[in-house]
Amino acid sequence: MVSRILQVECSDCGEEQAVFERTSSEIACGDCAAALASPTGGKAEIHGEVVDVLEAREA
Length: 59
Ligand SMILES: [Zn+2]
What we know:
This protein is mainly beta and 59 residues long. The protein has a single domain (2-57), classed as CATH 2.20.25.100. It has no helices and six strands. The protein has strands at residues 2-9, 16-20, 27-28, 35-38, 45-46, 49-57. Strand 3 (27-28) and strand 4 form a beta hairpin. It is globular. It starts with a strand and ends with a strand. The structure holds zinc ion. The site of zinc ion (ZN) has 8 residues, from loops.
């Protein structure tokens, strides 16, 4: 199974953080605590700007 990791730039402070595309928990910016992603049951809803996409292969 391949899951994607999104590099999300915080729209408030510009800090970049890696977020799993299918996260099941709320992701907050590590710098200013603004919400970066919210779980929806499928793909996370991204609140910042996606600047890069990485693929992670799971066993
Ligand atoms: Zn921030």
